[in-house]
Amino acid sequence: MTANKDLQTEIHPLKNDETESQHANEASDKPKVTKRKKLTKFGQLSKWRTAAFFLVLFLCLVVVFAFSFIIPCPVRPSSQREWTTTFENAATYPFLTLWDANQDKVADVMFAFKDSNNTNNGSCVSEDGLSFPCAYLTVLSGTNGSLLWKQTVVEDIQHIQCGVENLSDRKSSGCLVIGIPHYVIAINSSGETLWSLNTSLATDLLVIGPALILPDLDGDEVEDLLLIFIPSHQGNAVNELIFMLVSRKSGDPIGQRVYLNSAKGLVPSSPLLHVTNTGAYYILFIQGTVQGVALKDIYTQATGIPLSAPKLNSILKKSDPEWEKKTNITSGIIEVYNSQPVKYLQQVHVAGTDAGKLLISTDYAVELLDGQSLQSYWYHNLSQIQGMPLPGYFNKDDTFDFLIEDLIEKNMKKVTIVDGKSGKILWEEELITRENCPKPSSVNTVSQSIFFFWGELPTQNNVSLLESFSEKSHNLYMLHPLHPNIILELKNGTENVVAFTTTLFEHSRHAGCVLLLGQPKGSQPGRLTIIKQKLKDIIYLSRVRRLKKGHDDFDDDELIEYFHRMRYSS
């Protein structure tokens, strides 16, 4: 039988294939019919799902648009391009602090003044009825110059530190106000007092320098403070420093006073907190030379708690063998810099390291040290330094450069910008100057900095009038690294500029300058004026001054238009 089938296949091969194909088609017809039925049902289900999806999407859009009208977007404060606020019969202090007090994302202006109109010969009355000399700590809105609040404070204010977080365990930032003899208070963004240092703890002391922000020492999960005092009865003949650890949450002391014998010649504004690359904390200060003491030593002496205690903050247990080798075993003091008497001490941040660098300024030189090894990077000679060097970015190497003002002769200064890496001179110009000239300032652009400084370019006409200039006139200049052969003259006048600064009033939006004009504290009271101006506006009205040392290919209008379009960065 099998043989016959094979024979038929060989004789009629096509016929056999057709037969087999027919049988296969008949066998597959039934599954195809079933599959068509399933596909029809799936298609109907898919249509219902699509309809449901678009219905839900439509309902969501309706809800979103409805709530967009019910809950409007927050209104961005409209900053005035320029505003002026005046106070009559007042004398002011030579500082300005910029801080967003009302939390509208625009920096506000804080200053202090004495107002003889509203006080009894410059005195205020306390809650217990006692009269005492006082001043007013005042905050003006950065948007329009309106008065936000005014707080009575002690007359002899030394430092105001704003933007301090977690004062009295509050999430919003506040300010520390420090004044002589032992006045320390913490205030919130509304000017209300959060806490004050108990004066009975420091009746025989004189507070100096700013408060240093420390890590949490008392275990309340809030960073703490270090205050530095000197004995009040010794006056300027200082041979003893007193350290006091204070809780930032309550203002209460942490432990007892710590006494440190040191040389004379203390610079009050010099103390700073320094961290080495191993994470060890040191308190540095200028006492003739630059000296330091370990924070862990201050803590153990204040509290009596040994460093081996189990609940001690791990930060206090860190040490630095390199710095400990340089520490005097008897006094516990490390000599950071002892080449010559020091005038200014500044920290220079370096990405990727804790220690960074230290900039040391004496009367006749500026030197940059490594913050860990204390080795010198460079040394720049001066005739007589006129203020603390101003950091900024002149070239594009992401390293801080420094603007230095050097008094080269009477009523003449040299403004020099020194390269932060090598100490080489990048730019310099001689200007006529005067006593109590406002400090320089800077604002960052996208990749570099704009520098602002005061003086007068010498000409044949004004060189012979140096004496009169030193008492009356002053000009504000602007320098940008991309056009080093020209400077813009932004302002000129004869008003007494007590303080000046530049800043970004809004994050990466508009840069402005603030001028404090009037009579300084100790002078006869008069009109006090605070002016805020947008940099773009004063640039547009500026005058291009071309320097003799080089040439710029752009004309005056092109330069002003270029600077007017400048974008700023925080």
List the helices and strands and how they pair.
Layout: H1 2-11, H2 13-70, E1 82-92, E2 97-99, E3 108-115, E4 123-125, E5 131-140, E6 147-154, E7 157-164, E8 174-179, E9 183-187, E10 193-196, E11 205-214, E12 224-231, E13 240-246, E14 258-261, E15 272-275, E16 281-287, E17 289-294, H3 295-303, H4 321-324, E18 333-337, E19 344-348, E20 357-361, E21 365-370, E22 376-381, E23 390-392, E24 401-409, E25 412-418, E26 425-432, E27 441-444, E28 449-455, H5 466-471, E29 474-479, E30 486-493, E31 497-504, E32 511-517, E33 526-534, H6 535-540, E34 543-546, H7 556-564
Describe this structure in words.
By secondary structure, this protein is of the alpha+beta class. Helices cover 18% and strands 38% of the residues. Strands 1, 2, 3, 4, 5, 6, 31, 32 and 33 form a 9-stranded antiparallel sheet that branches. Strands 27-28-29-30-34 form a 5-stranded antiparallel sheet, with helices on one face. The chain has a 4-stranded antiparallel sheet with strand order 7-8-9-10, with no helix packed on it. A hairpin with a 6-residue loop joins β5 (131-140) and β6 (147-154). The longest helix is centred in the first third of the chain and has 58 residues, at 13-70. It starts with a helix and ends in a 6-residue tail after the last helix.
